[in-house]
Amino acid sequence: MPARPSENRASFSAKLPLSRHQVDRDYLAREREDLFPALLGDESTRILPVSKGRALFRTDTSLQLLPPSAIPPQAELVYLGLSLADDADEPVGTPILAALLTDEQASEVATDEQWGNLRMFATGLSDRDAGLATEALAIANWHASHRFSPRTGRPLRSVKGGWVRVDTDDGHEIFPRTDPAIIVGVTDADDRLLLGSNALWEKNRYSLLAGFVEPGESLEQAVEREIFEESGVRVTDAEYLGSQPWPFPASLMVGFRARVDDVDPGTLEPDGAEIIDLRWFTREELAAEAGDTVILPGRSSIARAIIEDWYGSEIAD
To answer: Which domains does the chain have, with CATH numbers?
Structure first.
């Protein structure tokens, strides 16, 4: 029987692939008006190209960072910060930019096979590369969806190292936004775990219940509301576990566990719209079915980490 879940939250956070980082974001440098000319004029600067939600990979376990001369001159840039990894090819302190490339620019830089999906390769990346890819893709998604002012419809210009977009007519600044979402490992009195199947998935794919935090709502309130809305189950004692950025396109997944309310447990019933099936699993049942009749979330997700935290070890699939 697997060991019971550790109470060490630091240990849990270490299991989250996209929460790793070895980059100093060096935010004060974003104020420099000569930041990009200075960095592009230094061939020791390294640039991570991103395009269409993908990053440039050298191998399955490492990103491909390029010198400034390898990047199309009209590419939109974002300053990611300074490398802190002493085991990387680049020395500690190396400045790193992201280049947000159009389709045409991406084809000039690399073949299609060299572009990789972070969800697929996150677990094999180093701490630095996982952090770089997550940061770069998240900010690239924000730029793609904020080309125009939500107030006036006028075009916005990227400033301050790519971390602000400004309306050049009235000076109004738009800053990056992240959408918080809760994701919850719900257990009952018998310590069984509740998993649900989403209407958009294969019928045998199961994961934890999750949902976005609404305006004016605390994280704990969102836990109680979302679980009830999707499953009919009422929960209590929401306990924070850890969080992981999820740049697909702009979420922060905030992990909790909670238990069914002993006084008012509700009635287990999927909402029928988003969730079409719900199941309680013992550890033995999940281990027996994982990878066979039940498909679990990928190892890059916080859902997988919470499930295995409850289980007590990794689950083979």
So the answer is: 18-147+155-174 (3.90.79), 178-311 (3.90.79.10)
